[in-house]
TrEMBL record:
The active site is at residues 44, 113. This is Signal peptidase I. It comes from Arthrobacter psychrolactophilus. Its EC number is 3.4.21.89. InterPro entries: LexA/Signal_pep-like_sf, Pept_S26A_signal_pept_1, Peptidase_S26. One of its GO terms (cellular component) is plasma membrane. The keyword Protease applies.
Length: 221
């Protein structure tokens, strides 16, 4: 009778472990193909996204439609915004990676910015009126952080095929394409580095809402 109970307990624990493993496999599949979670680590996209927000990122947002001006994108910054490094060691990297996967700590290689220029665009700042110019046309950016100017750093770039010019909405504190002018690549990010687009804020609870990025004036939509 005792042996039967022990075998029953072992089978029960095996079932629990198997169920947990299957759940993690399912979540990994979903997060690698459909939707992921991203921790907002900085003020660079305020007021749209606040420091500490957790957002769902749609990995399929650009599967059937091209990336357009005004879109907010999440992308891998390794090799451009952040250098390639060897890491802090297997164990430390594993712990940090687990926290990033759970959305508890920021991933310093992943960024979220707004697309200001796509292939063929010439982006310039600033016009005589102090506005951003896209293809010679001044644009009013309603999403900018209150009190920020379009750019304190003057620039003019023409975006080649397969690249994007990206900037944060809180321009005064944003590390973005402007910060890489003069570096290899000139601040232009490959479209292949784009992971997806933030769609919903899921944390904190009082900020649960769809993410509506008002870039219609830039894209003509």
């Amino acid at each position: 009778m005792t042996r039967a109970k022990r075998q029953s307990r072992k089978l029960g624990w095996r079932f629990v472990f198997l169920a947990v493993a299957l759940i993690f496999v399912f979540l990994a599949l979903v997060r690698n193909t459909w939707v992921d979670v991203y921790y907002i680590p900085s003020e660079s996209m305020e007021p749209l996204l606040l420091t500490g927000d957790r957002v769902l990122v749609s990995r399929t947002a650009f599967s059937h439609t091209p990336i357009e001006r005004g879109d907010v994108v999440v992308f891998d910054g390794r090799g451009s915004f952040t250098p390639l490094t060897s890491g802090a060691g297997a164990f430390a990297d594993g712990v940090v990676g687990a926290g990033q996967w759970l959305g508890l700590v920021p991933n310093n290689n992943i960024y979220v910015k707004r697309v200001l220029g796509v292939a063929g665009d010439t982006v310039k700042c600033c016009s005589a009126d102090g506005l951003l110019e896209i293809n010679g046309v001044p644009v009013t950016e309603s999403y900018l952080y209150p009190g920020d100017e379009p750019s304190a750093l003057p620039f003019e770039v023409t975006v080649p095929q397969g690249r994007l010019w990206l900037m944060g909405d809180h321009r005064n504190v944003s590390l973005d394409s402007r910060s890489l002018l003069g570096a290899p690549g000139g601040g232009l990010i490959s479209t292949s580095k784009v992971i997806g687009s933030p769609s919903v804020t899921i944390w904190p609870l009082d900020r649960i809402h769809p993410i509506l990025s008002d870039g219609s004036a830039l894209s003509g939509r």
